[in-house]
Amino acid sequence: MNTAPEARDLNLCLCHSCGKACDMTDHPDECERCGAPLHARKANSLTRTWAYLLASLVFYVPANLLPVMNTSMFGSGSDSTIIGGVLEFWEHGAWDIALIIFIASIAVPGIKFVALSLLLITVQRGSLWARKERAKLYRFVELIGYWSMLDVIVVALVAALVKFQALGDIEPRSGILFFGLVVVFTMLSAMSFDPRLIWENRKSEEVMDEVASH
Fold first, then answer.
1. Which sequence spans correspond to the domains of the chain?
2. Contact assessment for residue 24 and residue 12, using Cβ atoms and an 8 Å cutoff
3. What average pLDDT does range 176-185 have in this prediction?
4. pLDDT at site 209
5. CATH 3.40.50 describes domain 44-213
């Protein structure tokens, strides 16, 4: 079965900084355009991705159990966790803010945990299953990663609004710090994963193509 040549067959390497396809025939150490170090593959990609992902899972527990803010209204104050904050905003009619916090704080991290775990497990097993879809899944994880800090921004905006209108006072609590760590480590995990590993199991693919041809 005739297939198009791959970049490694042509001794090409994509620069991770500027995106230039660099010729590796003479084994250059850096990109000729921007000077960034060249790597045919991300070093220790799976190990670093697993480490960052597990660290984010550890921080996700206190991020949801500890209060993220303290709300004081007319002299009475109370601490709120992420779920408590969502319910409180919903009960007060701010369903849009409640929905944003729920998506950014609970749904998005959950999706990233499941998606990255799926990518890691299938790559380690050398699976040829749905590789194009898994590549799209990785790009989706990268896309939603840019919106992961939306919850922290919403809490900051609500606190500023409450103080500006002199309705009360809102102060951050330790839970917001752990949630920030969750965001950072999930982003590092996604950045450490090398999506080219999805297409790496070339030998198994050639065997399957040979069997199919017969």
1. 1-40, 44-213
2. yes
3. 85
4. 41
5. no
